[in-house]
Design brief:
mainly alpha; UraD-like; 9 helices; 0% strand; binds 1-(2,5-dioxo-2,5-dihydro-1H-imidazol-4-yl)urea
Length: 165
């Protein structure tokens, strides 16, 4: 959707455009309430501020929408297709990568009690795996701040994809 159209869309339509970026109602409402925007950059500034920080409960709810790395989202929703393109660097036919991810995801979930989240766009599978291994050594606090940062990056990248100049 073009920015001009987003600026004049009714409230419900505007929220529906944002929600697939990250399902955090406060974030969507803040962005919609600050309309109109004079540029996409101005929109990104507001979106970034509203994501800094996401609260722990918001992160927990939003994580449920993200498929594990290596698990292709199915369906034709905007959210699923964005996830698939973000994970384009992870080859579903590469059995060694798939095995390592399955093991790593499992270890991460055992350790932290939630899905391993990383901004996958622009990252190769080996980079993601290396990050997973490092992050397994973190404390809960260190991981909490990384997860918040990754969720913010994903949301802002998606936003740039859904609202254009
Ligand atoms: C994802 C996803 O679906 N897209 C992305 O950037 N990261 N999932 C995840 N578990 O990190």
């Amino acid at each position: 959707m073009e920015l001009a159209e987003f600026n004049r869309a009714d409230h419900e339509t505007a929220i529906a455009v944002l929600r697939p970026c990250v399902d955090v109602t406060r974030w969507c409402e803040t962005i919609v309430d600050h309309r109109p925007y004079t540029s996409v950059d101005a929109l990104i500034v507001t979106a970034s501020e509203a994501a800094s920080p996401f609260r722990a409960d918001e992160i927990e709810a939003a994580l449920a929408h993200h498929p594990r790395i290596g698990e292709r989202a199915d369906g034709s929703s905007r959210e699923a297709s964005m996830s698939r393109s973000e994970q384009a660097g992870v080859d579903p036919a590469d059995a060694a990568v798939q095995d390592a991810l399955r093991e790593g995801n499992h270890a991460y979930e055992e350790r932290f009690g939630q899905v391993f989240l990383i901004r996958a766009a622009g990252r190769r599978a080996d980079e993601i795996l290396a990050s997973l291994q490092t992050r397994l050594t973190h404390t809960d606090d260190e991981e909490a701040s990384i997860v918040a940062q990754q969720l913010r990056e994903i949301a802002l990248l998606r936003l740039k994809g859904v609202i254009t100049a």
